């Protein structure tokens, strides 16, 4: 599914309107997402000492640098940097190394005093990069971008609500977006209600039933793009925040001229997807320092704000009883304590919580916790008609013709004869292996009974039934 279709379908699912865009079709309106560009140091919310230290460290890394380069590195406007560099020149920490005909054609370098001062700055904080936003500014942005906030409808107004609101789902649109997942109507209704309400969701079922694949797809079902800071100032600590893997950029991004008028300390991203498995521990949910660099890591739940937090492989290896009550409490409005070691800053947790397990829910969660998980969707073997349809769609996606006699053989002679359930993991994996074997042999890939059996046998563990846990890319 194309990105444009995905955005349009998610708008239909959540009742938003892609009609009457303010910019060319498919292009994000950057100015409606990012704050205005700060023109003075006061506008940034940062103090002179902090920004001066960032300039010193940047010059220490780059050497002599022109003003536009410093502006790009720190994501601050030229006017803000001029204000800071003027003060630093007075303090004899930097000096003009070269100047041209225009007032922007200036290069700066550290003085001997600046070279000594920057070592102290690096010892206190190793961070070098974009200037941070304040914690208050981030709190306000999270609230503004929340999918939970109430939205007033205005009669006669085009669209009826902003792109970040959930105003009513369309089952047909959700079914179209999840056509490849083999969900039955009852499962889609549960999923649609959970997405609409942004309430906790539990996906449970056997290995290979498609739980993780669906969990990772959910973030693409949320409408709109969001602003995410490159770094946040928490207390006196600059904490790196933006992660390209968890905060991928949506495309296309709009006009460059429009971006120049916006605060470049923020990045425009798709709604976040933070996915963590059995490696989860309590430290990941707190602000904690890296013992090597001394820099702090932002808690996982904050990186998921305005998006989705997926806790996968929930089992005895993950301390559910310790971590889950705290997360559920944050969703209910309890303040999230950021700092360890006496730091009292708080931050709202504003993300949809999705839990994934291949165990029976009652064996993982106590009754009190289970009651607090609003929606629970069980996965298992697909109905035969759904499995056949999934095999046909997977064939089309891989550009391979699919004969019904081959599907009959797969269902009757391979699955049924071996007692292997019709799990969602098999069609894509089997076809992928057909492509692998054909590529190695240098032949055109064809889905024949012989090619299907070769692929099937390559994932068998006992000569008769393949094990889903050996299928590449499938959740444990």
Keywords:
476 residues; 3-stranded antiparallel β-sheet; 19 helices; 3 domains; Arc Repressor Mutant, subunit A; disordered N terminus; 5-stranded parallel β-sheet; 13% strand
Structural features, described:
The protein is of the alpha/beta class and 476 residues long. It contains 19 helices and 17 strands. The protein has 3 domains: 1-29 and 169-380, Rossmann fold, CATH 3.40.50.300; 47-131, Winged helix-like DNA-binding domain superfamily/Winged helix DNA-binding domain (Arc Repressor Mutant, subunit A); 384-470. The chain has helices spanning 3-13, 41-44, 48-62, 67-74, 78-90, 112-124, 135-145, 171-177, 185-197, 211-217, 256-260, 300-303, 320-331, 361-364, 367-372, 384-397, 404-418, 426-441, 449-458, and strands at 65-66, 94-99, 106-110, 133-134, 201-204, 225-229, 231-234, 237-240, 266-270, 273-276, 288-289, 296-297, 308-311, 336-337, 346-347, 352-357, 375-378. The protein has a 5-stranded parallel beta sheet. Strand 14 and strand 15 (346-347) form a beta hairpin. The longest helix has 16 residues, at 426-441. Residues 1-26, 151-168 and 469-476 have low confidence and may be disordered.
Report the sheet-strand fraction.
5-15%
- Continuous helix count: 19
What's the main sheet like? Answer: 5 strands, parallel
Kindly state the mean pLDDT as a whole number?
82
Just give the CATH class of the largest domain.
Alpha Beta
Supply Rg. Answer: 26 Å
Number of domains: 3
Strand arrangement in the largest pleated sheet: 10-13-16-5-17
Structural class: alpha/beta
Shape: elongated
- Helix content range: 25-40%
**CATH fold assignment of the largest domain:** Rossmann fold
| Strand count | 17
CATH homologous superfamily (4th level) name of the largest domain: P-loop containing nucleotide triphosphate hydrolases
